[in-house]
Amino acid sequence: MKIQEQVKDGVTIVRLTGKLISGPELMELKTAFQNLVNQDRHKKVVLDLGGVTWMDSSGLGVIVSGHTTLRRAEGMMKILNATKKIHELFIITKLITVFETFASESEAIASFKEPEKA
Amino acid sequence: MKIQEQVKDGVTIVRLTGKLISGPELMELKTAFQNLVNQDRHKKVVLDLGGVTWMDSSGLGVIVSGHTTLRRAEGMMKILNATKKIHELFIITKLITVFETFASESEAIASFKEPEKA
Amino acid sequence: MTPVRIGVPSAEEFLEPVQIVVEKVGSIAGVEQDDLTSLSIAVLELVKNGMEHGNDMDPDKEITICLEVLPGSLRVQVGDQGSWTPAGDVGFKPGEGDQLYSDRGRGILIARNLARWVDFDLSPEGKTLATLIWPIP
Amino acid sequence: MTPVRIGVPSAEEFLEPVQIVVEKVGSIAGVEQDDLTSLSIAVLELVKNGMEHGNDMDPDKEITICLEVLPGSLRVQVGDQGSWTPAGDVGFKPGEGDQLYSDRGRGILIARNLARWVDFDLSPEGKTLATLIWPIP
Ligand SMILES: Nc1ncnc2c1ncn2[C@@H]1O[C@H](COP(=O)(O)OP(=O)(O)O)[C@@H](O)[C@H]1O
Ligand SMILES: Nc1ncnc2c1ncn2[C@@H]1O[C@H](COP(=O)(O)OP(=O)(O)O)[C@@H](O)[C@H]1O
Predict the structure, then answer these.
(1) Residues of A in contact with C92 (CB under 8 A)
(2) One-letter-per-residue 3-state SS of chain B
(3) Chains that touch B (3 or more CB pairs under 8 A)
(4) Residue C99: what pLDDT?
(5) What CATH number is attached to the domain comprising A34?
(6) Do B55 and D41 make contact, defined as CB atoms within 8 angstroms?
(7) CATH classification of D4-135, choosing from 3.40.190.100, 3.40.50.300, 3.40.50.10190, 3.30.565.10?
């Protein structure tokens, strides 16, 4: 698993690639979410799962715990590019009711914008 | 394992990449050597092992049998870019006495040139 | 074809080799390329449970995985050193109470939804044995 | 740590999963990154021999591989269903006669040169058991 971060229009995009298998690497991801809060970059976060080839309940667990860490500090995380198979895991576990999911990065970023006053 | 062929200055460079592990892929390599003879491209052959990450006695066996196939038709194969670990296998098995080996493609190609008349 | 058997210490670093072997066997057994990941996810949920709940992540305790190609299905059995069988329902029912936001659980739920069948029993020696059935052509 | 055990049918497609597991266990046991390939080459020479010579490539016949971390060494045992032990010297002596150009052989030669020690014996059940010792820090 590889974690890369990029900031676009004030939104932090956390890109994961590879296998999210239980072990030290998943703990790194947990720390990465905590660091977003520590660095005050947690208000607008997009988690890009486009490069994730394998993930199970432990990966989902870290994503949910990241979500909780961010929410407690009034931050927000949205999911981008989950493959069909990973999307299925969000449905099975009903986590699809917790996360907003996007298939386009620009839409994910735009979704954080305040609605324009009419 | 992947097999790629390229012709340079009349020399056919056969480039192998990946794992040379026993199985159908090794048989493909055997066929590739036979095809060089069928297509009359066997006189000057360089086998580039630079991208080979794993190889054992079965891989060596196919290379030796390719060498024999080419020799019978008066062709010649030289070895390019064997990594330290693969070079070690050529030494252990004394195949280093059978093959000319090179660390530079241009030198491997040049070695097929007729010596200039003085 | 004789079954494929694997025995590993209860330690996370062995999950990935098991995952690779499971997908390889699935592929040889004829599981569709597209479903290999789901197969290995389901199996690894059981393997992780065996390591954690059955063997307390003790690397001196073995987890066994046996993969057998049967007519129409691949049967995977995961054994640990504990003696647990489910008392009634097991696994999460997300949507009820706090479970939706829990940072764990979901293993059996996922395995059961991906595989055709998952259940738990005791081996003849009285140890927990999880069985998973995956359809093959 | 409990040993890692693998049992696979005698078929070439299982060589790669075994190779991956062997390198993983080697890496956990502390074999240097640079030597993992040599370790798996040496072990696979024994596995291929067991499949070919011991089990006649019959997928109904199992090859077992057991990897155990001992003080100072990793011990790998490869078992097949045959009952062979070497009568005197085994393996090629390249440079003598035709063997240099043979398109097979070389397996035991390579395994013995790469590993600290390789030998063959019969298991208590009278089956061929190859043992390989690899040094670890
Ligand atoms: N092999 C096992 N041995 C003992 N208990 C188990 C085993 N597998 C599952 N369980 C029990 O079933 C529960 C639900 O498992 P699961 O859905 O995978 O979630 P989690 O493992 O994250 O708790 C576990 O918390 C545990 O109590
Ligand atoms: N597990 C085994 N069972 C029976 N015979 C074996 C076994 N391993 C090795 N041998 C014998 O030892 C010989 C040398 O083996 P090796 O050096 O690996 O070369 P190769 O397998 O290519 O012949 C084999 O040809 C075979 O006769």
Answers:
(1) 93
(2) CEEEEEEECCEEEEEEEEEECCCHHHHHHHHHHHHHHHCCCCCCEEEEEEEEEEECHHHHHHHHHHHHHHHHCCCCEEEECCCHHHHHHHHHCCHHHCCCEECCHHHHHHCCCCCCCC
(3) D
(4) 79
(5) 3.30.750.24
(6) yes
(7) 3.30.565.10
DSSP-assigned letter for residue C136: -
Residues A64 and A27 sit within 8 Å (Cβ to Cβ): no
Residue at token pair 């390579």: D110
Closest alpha carbon to D38 in D51, D50, D27, D48:
D27
Number of domains in chain B: 1
Tokens of C100: 């939706």
ipTM of this complex: 0.90
Domain range for A105: 2-110
Question: Which chain C residues are Cβ-neighbours of A62 within 8 angstroms?
Answer: 103
Q: What is the pLDDT of residue D25?
A: 96
A117 is a domain residue: no
Q: In this predicted structure, what is the pLDDT of residue C101? A: 87
Residue among C51, C53, C62 to mutate when testing ligand 1 (max atoms within 8 A of CB) = C53
CA angle B48, B50, B56 (to 5 degrees): 90
Residue B102 forms part of a structural domain: yes
CA distance D112 to D45: 10
Query: Is there an interface between C and A (3+ Cβ pairs < 8 A)?
Result: yes
Could C107 and A55 be called an inter-chain contact, meaning their C-beta atoms sit closer than 8 Å? no
Please give the mean pLDDT across all residues of chain D: 94
Q: How far is it, in rounded angstroms, from Cα A66 to Cα A55?
A: 16
**Helices D15-29 and C15-29, axial angle in degrees (round to 10):** 180
Residue A75 lies in a domain: yes
Domain positions in chain C are 4-135
The fraction of chain C above a pLDDT of 90, given in percent, is 86
Instruction: Give domain status of residue B97, yes or no.
Output: yes
Mean pLDDT for the stretch of residues A39-43? 95
Q: Which residues of chain B fall short of a pLDDT of 70?
A: 116-118
**Cα–Cα distance for residue pair A26/C42, rounded to 1 Å:** 18
Q: Which of B9-13, C118-122, D2-6, D98-102 comes out lowest in average pLDDT?
A: D98-102
Q: Which helix (H) or strand (E) holds C56?
A: none
